[in-house]
């Protein structure tokens, strides 16, 4: 869409200017701001016939209409607002709604369930490319008649403005010079009515365009083409351009091909071809140059869908799932790592698409999408959309619009894909349903994509399939209670066997002095043998950076973040200390800032240090690292995975992103560091999560038939019960122990949790607000349901002190909706107190 100004309506037929006095239609609009209400605006009369619920509009907002926003039409009616004067909708952006009724219902439900504002939901749901951006601009006022009022500098500035259609504040500031107060200058010119300040609004989405060439229609006729070639005999370079085009586009065989044209880039790639001759032919109307929109997700595999051949075990699982779907809307597929769940998913997706339904396939991590997407594209080609945050705004908008238009009946994506405008879903697959990555922590809404998917499935009468080798206790409990169907797949694909898991006692090795830095002798020797056999290894350490912190040996000083109550992590590659909470960075000190000692050393280890040590221990080996630091670029995941798949890497070191879903035939060894830290984490879910993570990363080994993999877990306490369950792959044993403990202490799935986090720059103010809120809640809910306030493990983040209040509500015994309304009232009491207005309170429903 071309840029347009709010002051002057566009000439596009979608946009209209109107007599504002005759309008009677009003719209309730969702604005992307954290306010617990919608806003009523007046619809101009000429727009009334074409505006629809779910369309985007542009509206002014704020004092003196100082801001411009994209809003969504949620309701149309004839009732003006009671407490304020309705302003006018400025522009209509969509002739056809980009948000459907199901999504609007979803927005309302999420705002209510997750205790946030509907504007928060809209802000997260819509890709930024669908939200209009605005920027203040200045233009010369043609009605200005008092040049004698201007200063010398203002005269020069106006002279420049007359040459330009408009300038931004920044452009004016550069013209005026660094010493000029540009704000004061603009204020002066506005006061003299010499300039007009307006908002230029632009839609961020820009379609991808490609330049093409075609012969003028005249030369599609054989006689005219021959005459052209004869005429160009005296201009051999131009004749060669025409001949080269005809080789690519046989006009005489099929004239229709000429109208489709040829990508200009194809001719530009030929260095021997004269580009000036090509331009001359365009200028002389022999060729026509034109642009077409190019989809960003084209794929050469868009043809036939190959048949997926399931093994006996996979076919039995697929049949059981379909049988369970006849009675249940949700089914849990519990399949061991490497059992071939993806092939079962593909089989079910093909059936759903054949019935005319839409399909959504959710994955927890972008890293996981990389390998699976390639497999899915081989089957579905460009009929499949891909949606995740590493894609550009334009790419995400194209998928969104592709779902609206029906181009994409099937989309694979991460948690944000639940917001896509589906209206005919038949199947939703939530792969690795146990993963914490499905839960959004910031900003609001703090939703869980799995739970949102279940609600969408309920509304659209779609079947939901949850899949995991290590299901969440909540999902497995609901399956055992027969509220979900349950299908189990216990055999690995292709007769591959589960790996042998061995525990390495690092405490004993340290006593015997056989450790090589962070590597036990057992792991070091196993890596050496694996490299010798030309087989691949994966090493898991759930900590990035070189070292968790730096400390002075003489005075125990520790490098800490200025903004957060955490130590700074040392990153050797960038030679800096970095906070993983707020991003604060510092140079590495040469001496201790407290005592001046030079004995400042690193403590602990992360993935970067392991990578560094591997290159010392095995100098001829090829090592790659996969963590947040090495995968910031858009295709970094894909590049690392492709390199590993090709066999160009001996050892892959990574954090939890390497634990899930990756499938490599040549990996025969997995090493796990720091297992004890995961198990001892102070959280009621620590045992469950440790089992899930250890089992998942172990499952990367030995996925090829005829080769049993080996997993070495380094631990200081090999006798821990959970490690024995990991060795035996005893999920049911873990479940039976954990579910009893959850019931005894009233934790999920026997209760619902809501965490309230109180934040303020002053610790005492934050604590006072938290204690008052907890006391108010306890008075009605009782002391067994309200725990805290307590300071969390990290008590200060971004210079704000935190206090947590945990609310435990018995499942099926409490009116949760009424309790949430009561909590909101008590929060409002705090926030409207004059002494506590700067406090912020965050509600996290179903907190993890």
UniProtKB/TrEMBL annotation:
<keyword id="KW-0067">ATP-binding</keyword>
<feature type="domain" description="Helicase C-terminal">
    <location>
        <begin position="576"/>
        <end position="747"/>
    </location>
</feature>
<protein>
    <recommendedName>
        <fullName>Replication restart protein PriA</fullName>
        <ecNumber>5.6.2.4</ecNumber>
    </recommendedName>
</protein>
<comment type="similarity">
    <text>Belongs to the helicase family. PriA subfamily.</text>
</comment>
<keyword id="KW-0862">Zinc</keyword>
<dbReference type="Pfam" id="PF18074">
    <property type="entry name" value="PriA_C"/>
</dbReference>
<dbReference type="InterPro" id="IPR041236">
    <property type="entry name" value="PriA_C"/>
</dbReference>
<keyword id="KW-0639">Primosome</keyword>
<keyword id="KW-0235">DNA replication</keyword>
<dbReference type="GO" id="GO:0003677">
    <property type="term" value="F:DNA binding"/>
</dbReference>
<feature type="binding site">
    <location>
        <position position="555"/>
    </location>
    <ligand>
        <name>Zn(2+) 1</name>
    </ligand>
</feature>
<dbReference type="GO" id="GO:0006269">
    <property type="term" value="P:DNA replication, synthesis of primer"/>
</dbReference>
<dbReference type="GO" id="GO:0006302">
    <property type="term" value="P:double-strand break repair"/>
</dbReference>
<keyword id="KW-0547">Nucleotide-binding</keyword>
<feature type="binding site">
    <location>
        <position position="552"/>
    </location>
    <ligand>
        <name>Zn(2+) 1</name>
    </ligand>
</feature>
<dbReference type="InterPro" id="IPR014001">
    <property type="entry name" value="Helicase_ATP-bd"/>
</dbReference>
<dbReference type="GO" id="GO:0008270">
    <property type="term" value="F:zinc ion binding"/>
</dbReference>
<feature type="binding site">
    <location>
        <position position="595"/>
    </location>
    <ligand>
        <name>Zn(2+) 1</name>
    </ligand>
</feature>
<keyword id="KW-0413">Isomerase</keyword>
<dbReference type="InterPro" id="IPR041222">
    <property type="entry name" value="PriA_3primeBD"/>
</dbReference>
<comment type="function">
    <text>Initiates the restart of stalled replication forks, which reloads the replicative helicase on sites other than the origin of replication. Recognizes and binds to abandoned replication forks and remodels them to uncover a helicase loading site. Promotes assembly of the primosome at these replication forks.</text>
</comment>
<dbReference type="InterPro" id="IPR005259">
    <property type="entry name" value="PriA"/>
</dbReference>
<dbReference type="InterPro" id="IPR011545">
    <property type="entry name" value="DEAD/DEAH_box_helicase_dom"/>
</dbReference>
<feature type="binding site">
    <location>
        <position position="579"/>
    </location>
    <ligand>
        <name>Zn(2+) 2</name>
    </ligand>
</feature>
<dbReference type="Pfam" id="PF18319">
    <property type="entry name" value="Zn_ribbon_PriA"/>
</dbReference>
<dbReference type="Pfam" id="PF17764">
    <property type="entry name" value="PriA_3primeBD"/>
</dbReference>
<dbReference type="InterPro" id="IPR040498">
    <property type="entry name" value="PriA_CRR"/>
</dbReference>
<comment type="subunit">
    <text>Component of the replication restart primosome.</text>
</comment>
<dbReference type="GO" id="GO:0006270">
    <property type="term" value="P:DNA replication initiation"/>
</dbReference>
<dbReference type="InterPro" id="IPR001650">
    <property type="entry name" value="Helicase_C-like"/>
</dbReference>
<dbReference type="Pfam" id="PF00271">
    <property type="entry name" value="Helicase_C"/>
</dbReference>
<dbReference type="InterPro" id="IPR027417">
    <property type="entry name" value="P-loop_NTPase"/>
</dbReference>
<dbReference type="GO" id="GO:1990077">
    <property type="term" value="C:primosome complex"/>
</dbReference>
<dbReference type="GO" id="GO:0043138">
    <property type="term" value="F:3'-5' DNA helicase activity"/>
</dbReference>
<dbReference type="Pfam" id="PF00270">
    <property type="entry name" value="DEAD"/>
</dbReference>
<keyword id="KW-0347">Helicase</keyword>
<dbReference type="InterPro" id="IPR042115">
    <property type="entry name" value="PriA_3primeBD_sf"/>
</dbReference>
<keyword id="KW-0479">Metal-binding</keyword>
<feature type="binding site">
    <location>
        <position position="564"/>
    </location>
    <ligand>
        <name>Zn(2+) 2</name>
    </ligand>
</feature>
<feature type="binding site">
    <location>
        <position position="561"/>
    </location>
    <ligand>
        <name>Zn(2+) 2</name>
    </ligand>
</feature>
<feature type="domain" description="Helicase ATP-binding">
    <location>
        <begin position="322"/>
        <end position="489"/>
    </location>
</feature>
<feature type="binding site">
    <location>
        <position position="592"/>
    </location>
    <ligand>
        <name>Zn(2+) 1</name>
    </ligand>
</feature>
């Amino acid at each position: 869409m071309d840029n347009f100004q709010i002051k002057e309506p566009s000439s596009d037929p979608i946009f209209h200017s109107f007599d504002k006095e005759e309008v009677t239609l009003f719209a309730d609009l969702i604005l992307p701001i954290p306010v617990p209400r919608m806003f009523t605006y007046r619809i101009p009369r000429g727009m009334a016939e074409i505006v629809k619920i779910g369309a985007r509009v542009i509206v002014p907002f704020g004092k003196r209409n100082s801001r411009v926003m994209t809003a969504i039409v949620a309701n149309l009616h004839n009732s003006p607002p009671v407490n304020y004067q309705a302003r006018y909708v400025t522009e209509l952006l969509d002739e056809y709604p980009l948000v459907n009724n199901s999504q609007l219902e979803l927005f309302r439900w999420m705002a209510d369930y997750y205790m946030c504002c509907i504007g928060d939901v809209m802000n997260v749901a819509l890709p930024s490319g669908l939200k209009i951006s605005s920027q203040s601009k200045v233009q010369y006022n043609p009605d200005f008649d008092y040049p004698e009022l201007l200063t010398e500098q203002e005269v020069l500035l106006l002279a420049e403005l007359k040459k330009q259609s408009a300038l931004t504040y920044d452009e004016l500031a550069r013209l005026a010079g660094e010493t000029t107060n540009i704000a004061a200058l603009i204020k002066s010119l506005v006061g003299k009515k010499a300039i007009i300040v307006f908002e230029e609004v632009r839609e961020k989405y820009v379609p991808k365009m490609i330049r093409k060439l075609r012969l003028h229609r005249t030369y599609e006729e054989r006689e005219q083409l021959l005459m052209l070639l004869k005429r160009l005999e005296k201009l051999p370079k131009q004749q060669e351009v025409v001949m080269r085009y005809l080789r690519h586009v046989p006009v005489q065989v099929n004239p229709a091909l000429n109208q489709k044209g040829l990508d200009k880039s194809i001719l530009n790639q030929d260095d021997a071809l004269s580009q000036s001759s090509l331009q001359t032919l365009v200028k002389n109307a022999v060729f026509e140059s034109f642009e077409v929109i190019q989809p960003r997700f084209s794929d050469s595999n868009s043809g036939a869908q190959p048949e997926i051949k399931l093994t006996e075990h996979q076919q039995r699982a697929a049949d059981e799932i379909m049988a369970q779907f006849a009675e249940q809307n949700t089914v849990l597929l519990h399949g061991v790592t490497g059992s071939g769940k993806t092939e079962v998913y593909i089989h079910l997706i093909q059936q759903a698409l054949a019935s005319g339904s839409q399909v959504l396939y959710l994955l927890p991590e972008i890293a996981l999408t990389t390998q699976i997407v390639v497999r899915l594209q081989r089957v579905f080609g460009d009929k499949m959309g891909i949606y995740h945050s590493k894609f550009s705004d334009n790419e995400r908008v194209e998928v969104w619009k592709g779902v609206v238009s029906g181009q994409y009946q099937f989309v694979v994506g991460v948690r944000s894909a639940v917001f896509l405008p589906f209206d005919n879903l038949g199947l939703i697959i939530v792969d690795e349903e146990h993963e914490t990555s499905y839960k959004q922590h910031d900003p609001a809404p703090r939703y869980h994509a799995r739970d949102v998917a279940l609600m969408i499935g309920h509304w659209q009468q779609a079947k939901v399939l949850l899949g995991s080798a290590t299901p969440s206790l909540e999902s497995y409990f609901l399956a055992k209670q027969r509220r979900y169907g349950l299908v189990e797949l216990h055999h690995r694909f292709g007769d591959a066997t589960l790996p042998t898991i061995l525990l390495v006692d690092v405490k004993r090795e340290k006593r015997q002095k056989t450790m090589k830095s962070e590597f036990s002798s057992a792991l070091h020797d196993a890596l050496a043998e694996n490299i010798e056999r030309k087989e691949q290894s994966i090493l898991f350490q759930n900590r990035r950076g070189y070292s968790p912190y730096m400390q002075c040996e003489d005075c125990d000083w520790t490098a800490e973040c200025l903004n957060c109550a955490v130590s700074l992590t040392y990153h050797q590659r960038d030679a800096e200390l970095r906070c993983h909470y707020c991003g604060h960075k510092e140079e590495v000190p040469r001496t201790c800032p407290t005592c001046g000692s030079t004995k400042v050393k690193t403590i602990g280890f992360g993935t970067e240090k392991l990578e560094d040590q591997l290159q010392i221990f095995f100098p001829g080996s090829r090592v790659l690292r996969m963590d947040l630091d090495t995968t910031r670029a858009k295709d970094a995941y894909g590049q690392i995975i492709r390199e590993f798949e090709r066999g160009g890497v001996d050892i892959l070191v990574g954090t939890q992103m390497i634990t899930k879903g990756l499938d490599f035939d040549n990996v025969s060894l997995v090493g796990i560091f720091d297992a004890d830290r995961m198990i001892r984490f102070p959280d009621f879910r620590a045992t469950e999560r440790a089992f899930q993570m250890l089992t998942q990363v172990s499952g990367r080994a030995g996925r090829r038939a005829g080769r049993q993999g080996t997993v070495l877990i380094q631990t200081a306490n090999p006798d821990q019960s959970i490690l024995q369950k990991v060795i035996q792959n005893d999920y049911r044993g873990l479940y039976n122990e954990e579910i009893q403990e959850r019931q005894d202490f009233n934790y999920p799935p026997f209760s619902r949790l809501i965490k309230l986090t109180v934040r303020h720059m002053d610790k005492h103010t934050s604590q006072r607000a938290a204690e008052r809120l907890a006391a108010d809640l306890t008075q009605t809910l009782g002391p067994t349901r309200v725990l805290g306030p307590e300071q969390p493990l990290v008590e200060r983040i971004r210079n704000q002190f935190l206090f947590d209040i945990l609310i435990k509500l018995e499942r099926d015994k409490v009116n949760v909706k009424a309790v949430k309304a009561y909590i909101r009232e008590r929060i409002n009491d705090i926030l409207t107190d004059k002494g506590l207005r700067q406090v912020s309170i965050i509600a996290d429903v179903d907190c993890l």
